[in-house]
Design brief:
mainly alpha; 6 helices; single chain
């Protein structure tokens, strides 16, 4: 969330003629609408552009952009740190899994080779090439009755061979049971290690999420406080602007009320050459109601006098 921007830059105003100023012509007749706009628009006539306010706004905008850039940099740095930490944990988990896999492969290569199986001789493809010769001597135990070399009629080593076979079978069973127990223990240890790794990763991710959530809440609180401060500043500026406008309006009203030109003061039309006999045409606003009434009364008296004279002439 970025900070809101309040644009309080004053608007550029059009240069206008000030009544009574150096650029005001006393002989030019202005349009009434333009003249009314000159009188009422005190801000455009007197205020102009506030350069200090514009510079202050530029500095404030630069500071706000710097703060936003610093916040983005810290956020990127924090995200990079958490990403590297997760990558390291994932690499550690993979190394542990690879070590377990190597141990399993090593155990299989050492204790579970094909040639060590009990029934391997039934499917050994090289059994015929590895068999000894058919006869190696007269006392060869493999020689049967058809050789006509031994006619004992009995196997004197049958009992010993049976005991040897049973002992060998017992040893095989014990070794297989031990191998199975070791395999189950290794699998259980691998599961426990994997579960511990996953739990550590989840705990770390939860802590990272909580930390990020707290940082986000703090940032949002700071944004809200800054917005409230800016709103108060704007309200104060608006109040000051309204007060200045009211003061300017009061000054303008006083100026208009005291200006003889606007109030059409008859004294302003008096001629300096012949006071009382002549008037300044460019300042004269016409006769007042007393002068008009006096003229009307004079004209009425002259009319009555003329009618009386005509009546007397007609009677004579």
């Amino acid at each position: 969330t970025r900070l809101p921007r309040f644009d309080t830059a004053p608007r550029a105003t059009r240069a206008m003629t000030v009544i009574g100023g150096a650029g005001f012509s006393r002989t030019k007749r202005f349009d009434p609408a333009e003249r009314l706009a000159l009188i009422h628009n005190a801000k455009q006539r007197t205020k102009g552009i506030d350069v200090d306010a514009l510079n202050a706004q530029v500095a404030e905008k630069a500071a706000r952009k710097a703060a936003e850039a610093e916040h983005d940099r810290r956020y990127d740095q924090m995200a990079s740190f958490y990403d590297k930490k997760l990558v390291a944990l994932e690499q550690e988990r993979r190394e542990i899994q690879a070590e377990l896999n190597r141990n399993v492969q090593s155990f299989r290569a050492e204790y579970q080779r094909k040639e060590l199986r009990r029934e391997y001789d039934l499917s050994d493809p090289t059994a015929l090439r590895s068999e000894p010769p058919a006869r190696v001597g007269d006392d060869d135990a493999r020689i049967g009755a058809s050789s006509l070399q031994r006619f004992d009629g009995e196997d004197l080593a049958a009992g010993e061979r049976r005991r040897t076979q049973l002992a060998q079978q017992h040893a095989w069973c014990e070794r297989q049971a031990a191998e199975k127990v070791a395999q189950l223990a290794a699998a259980k240890a691998a599961d426990v290690a994997h579960a511990e790794t996953v739990a550590a990763q989840e705990e770390y991710m939860n802590k990272a999420h909580e930390h990020h959530k707290a940082a986000r809440a703090a940032f949002e609180r700071s944004v809200a406080e800054e917005n409230a401060r800016l709103a108060q500043l704007k309200a104060r500026r608006d109040a000051e602007a309204r007060a200045i406008d009211a003061e300017l309006a009061s000054a303008e009203a006083a100026k208009v009320e005291s200006d003889p030109m606007i109030n059409e003061d008859p004294a302003a039309a008096a001629s300096a050459v012949a006071p009382g006999a002549r008037v300044r045409v460019d300042h004269w606003k016409g006769m007042n109601y007393l002068q008009v009434r006096s003229i009307n009364e004079t004209v009425a008296a002259q009319r009555e006098e003329l009618e009386s004279r005509r009546a007397a002439e007609a009677a004579a």
